[in-house]
Amino acid sequence: MRNVLTIARKEIQTYFGSPMAYVIAAVFLAVSSVFFISDLESSGLARLTGFQVWAMVLLTGIAPILTMRLIAEEQKLGTLELLMTAPVRESEVILGKFLGAFVTLFALLLLTWFYPLVLKLGGGDPDFGPVFAGYLGLLLFGAAFFAIGLLASAVTANQILAAVVGLGLLLMLWLVSLAGGLVQNVEWARGIVNYVSLTNVYGDFLRGVVDTRAIVFLVSLTATVLFAAIRAVEARRWR
Amino acid sequence: MSTTNPPSNLKAVLGGYTAIAGVVALIAAVVAAAMFVLLPAMADTARLLLGVALLFFVVFVVGAFDEVRATLQTRQTKYGTNSVLMVLAFAAIMGVVNFLAAQYPLRIDLTAGGQFTLSQHTQSVLRGLNKPVQVTGFFSRSNPDAQTIQGQVESLLREYQNISPQLTYRFVDPIENPEIARQYGIESEGLLVFEQEGRRQVVAGIGEQDFTGGILKVIGLQRLKVFYLTGHGEPDLAARDEQGYGLVSQALDAENYEVQQLNLTTNPQVPGDAALVIVASPKDPLSESEVRALEDYLLRGGKAMFLLDPNPRPELVALLARWGVKVAPGQVIEPNASVQGAPNAVVVDRARYVFGQITQYLNLTIFPGAAGLTADVPENDRDHVVVLPLAGSTAQAFAAADVSRTSFQDGDVRGPFALALTVQADQPIGRQPSRGGQAPEALPTRIAVFGDADFAANRYFYTYSNSDLFVNTVNWLTAQEELISIRPKPPEFRRLVITGAQWTLITVSSVLFWPGLLLVAAGWVWWRRR
Predict the structure, then answer these.
(1) Planar angle of CA B229, B233, B235, nearest 5 degrees
(2) What residues of chain A lie within 8 A of the CB of B19, using their CB?
(3) Rounded CA gap, B31 and B54, in Å?
(4) Which residue of A has its CA nearest to B168?
């Protein structure tokens, strides 16, 4: 456990130690503000939907970029082998790096709490139910997306390739949502597709509805992907 | 151990077309995703773009195939298969976990108004659905308000669908697809049509009560018949003028009742399939046989609504007296709870509703010129004749012949009165009930008496909660009570009503605050690293 925390701390320091990360965060927040404000204007309602919807799209793009270096870079620099010879288990490496990335995501999302607060201060009265639920959804989805990005980083040695593969995997997930509309008439497929369809699942969170099935789905997806990443790194050990 | 091979080769390739293909795929995919999510009207273009992205991705993979294959083959084959199998096994276990979770789902509604929590009644109606019900909502895409409402409608329908997959829905823009709107007879937007096996029900509201009501009506095989007494100068059901009852007719129709005229002079008997008889302020006398026909109907467990006006027909007063209702002469004067300048136009506020089941969700109602009603049931008959007020007056009310006064004089009748009340009975006063010791809800005869018929006239029907009181009472009389019991949860539209200064605060701070701070932080970190 201590190893996990050590590795996580190291990753967090790496993230927060890079000026680039702050610039990316600044851009993310600036763009998010635009979506936040534009939805306020067009709907006339006090809500966070503009930002939360956009944040999902952004997460899909950011996850591969933020996670691509996690394993792949270590491999390129040769530090991965160093890590492997230390009394550290592969699972601890993966979990530690995942935790580090997740904490960074959490920090970024925490910053966006600015929006509901400034909305309230500015005289609006948003329903905080959907706000909380939306953030919960973003956290769960973020975790799953970051896990996928981590997996992609673990199976390739090249960061760019890792990013592309990660993005590809995420897009396949989104494809299922897009395909959802086509499959509505097919009885057996409809249930499954609706269950895993990202737009369906996130839609519930956006409305303020927390469904245990969605939580189980996203957590189990994250767990499976992390498990796969651990296996992938383990296989490296035996090269 | 050999170091990984891809980097050096990929570096060479990176300068080539393959890398470009990869980058293009990335950009196209992100744009497609953004489009799909943010510009639903361009969904087709988004799908096309996604296809393009996948195409370029394939090109990238093909071009970098060797590198990709080598990369993927850094997995030792000996342990590779093993790993894959382990992952698959893990995934299968997760699949089972998900399956179990799906058997015992828990859905928590965090919205402030609990809009997505369905009542027990709705849930049982939905679980009982055994044939598909299709819902078509007509909302125009170009109208942002309509889109906001459509969002709420869709959210609620999703909850319905979550309980019963038999319910499916779609949205049609009546401006883009006028022929579909015409097919359904829809002339304005914001309406929904529920259909099952060719039967259709138009629903105008967007709350749970409206949707569940719509479902109930469309799966019902038979419309309940409401008979409206005519021939004595009653308000005209077809009339659209101020005193007419055209809106009553419409409302009953929307509640899926079949309204028919009842002429008791030609045939002094209420039809056997009558679910409800409405007698609305007859001006001309009712003959003995007509009164007897009504009485017979009530004696065999009939349901009736009487709408009176001040100083109603004496034969009606006598009939109602036999069922425990006393009508005071004159009009009710409310010094303190009436419309300004019209002390006989009584306003009933929430505090003075009594019969909770029918009135619990009502707001104000107005009775422009009402007779005062009181319960008058002898001690011995109280076990089989139960009179409950619906809407009451204040204690200062009194009934007078002259409406210009606002103070009590000798000869007036002191209040308080009921302006509307209900009677549940098994046999009228003086007769023995067929069965003893029944609960009021089990008593077969149901009567609702309103001291004013104008409250339901076109002029006042959609004022305050008048129509809701009328419709709820009808539904109670015909025992469609579950519908009344659904607490209305109006969709929450939290309008942003703020000053220009507040708007500026929100917008400027959102754009400048964190981005600004972060850029400063970036600079600081960079400077520290130098």
Answers:
(1) 70
(2) 160
(3) 13
(4) A184
Contact A67, A150 (CB under 8 A): yes
The amino acid at residue B132 is P
B258-269: average pLDDT = 91
Q: Of the ranges A212-226, B21-35, B357-371, which one carries the lowest mean pLDDT score?
A: B21-35
CA–CA gap between residue A195 and residue B55 (Å, rounded): 27
CA quadruple B288, B291, B294, B300: dihedral sign? negative
Closest residue in chain B to residue A26, using alpha carbons only: B515
| Closest chain B residue to A133, measured at CA | B110
User: Which helix (DSSP H) or strand (DSSP E) does residue A84 occupy?
Assistant: helix A79-85
Max Cα-Cα span within chain A: 61
State how far the Cα of B509 lies from the Cα of A29, in Å rounded to an integer. 11
Which residues of chain B make contact with A122, given a CB cutoff of 8 A?
498, 502-503, 505-506
Cα angle B31, B32, B37 (rounded to 5 degrees) comes to 100
Which residue's structure tokens are 């001040």? B310
Nearest CA distance, A20 vs chain B (angstrom): 7
Beta bridge partners of B228: B261, B278
Residue type, A219: V
Which residues lie across from A45 on neighbouring strands? B495
Token digits of residue B68: 């990709």
Q: Do B155 and A156 touch (CB under 8 A)?
A: no
Cβ atoms A199, B46 nearer than 8 A: no
In angstroms, how far is the first alpha carbon of chain B from the final one?
37
Q: Cα(A153)–Cα(A229) distance, rounded to whole angstroms?
A: 9
Q: How far is CA A120 from CA A33, A125, B200, in A?
A: 15, 6, 44
Whether the CB of B68 is below 8 Å from some CB of chain A: the reply is yes
Cα–Cα distance, A226 to B451 (Å, whole number): 73
Q: Do B30 and A29 touch (CB under 8 A)?
A: no
In one letter, which amino acid is B97? V
Closest CA to A49 of B152, B509, B425: B152
> Which amino acid appears at position B160 of this protein?
Y
Q: How confident is the model at residue A214 (pLDDT cuts 50, 70, 90)?
A: very high
B155 Cβ neighbours under 8 A, 6+ residues apart: A207, B115, B116
Residue A112, min C-alpha distance to chain B (Å):
9
Q: Considering only alpha carbons, which residue of chain B is nearest residue A217?
A: B98
pLDDT digits (tens, 9 = 90+) for B44-83: 788 888 888 888 888 887 777 766 666 566 545 556 777 8
Question: Cβ–Cβ contacts within 10 Å for residue A88, how many?
Answer: 16
Q: Where are the alpha helices (DSSP H) in B15-119?
A: 17-38, 43-63, 65-72, 77-103
Collect all residues with Cβ–Cβ distance below 8 Å to A236 and sequence separation of at least 6. Answer: A75, A80, A84, B74
pLDDT tens-digit map of B394-416: 888 899 888 777 788 888 888 89
Among B135, B152, B512, B514, the strongest candidate for a mutation testing the A interface, having the largest count of A CBs within 10 A, is B514
> What does the alpha-carbon distance between residue B45 and residue B49 come to, in Å, rounded to a whole number?
6
Residues B218, B222, B226, CA angle at the centre, nearest 5°? 110
Q: What is the mean pLDDT of residues A180-195?
A: 64
Task: Supply the ipTM of this predicted assembly.
Answer: 0.85
Q: Give the angle A145-A146-A151 at the CA atoms, nearest 5°.
A: 100
How near does any CA of chain B get to the CA of A174, in Å?
Answer: 8
Which has the closest alpha carbon to B109: A193, A204, A2, A24? A204
Please indicate whether residue A224 or residue B335 has the higher confidence score (pLDDT).
A224
pTM here?
0.66
Residue whose structure tokens are 């028919």: B260
How many other C-beta atoms can be found within 10 angstroms of the C-beta atom of residue B490? 12
Confidence of residue A216 (pLDDT cuts 50, 70, 90): very high
Q: Judge contact between B368 and B411, C-beta under 8 A.
A: no
Judge whether residue A212 has pLDDT over 80.
Answer: yes
Nearest CA to B234 out of B270, B271, B284 is that of B284
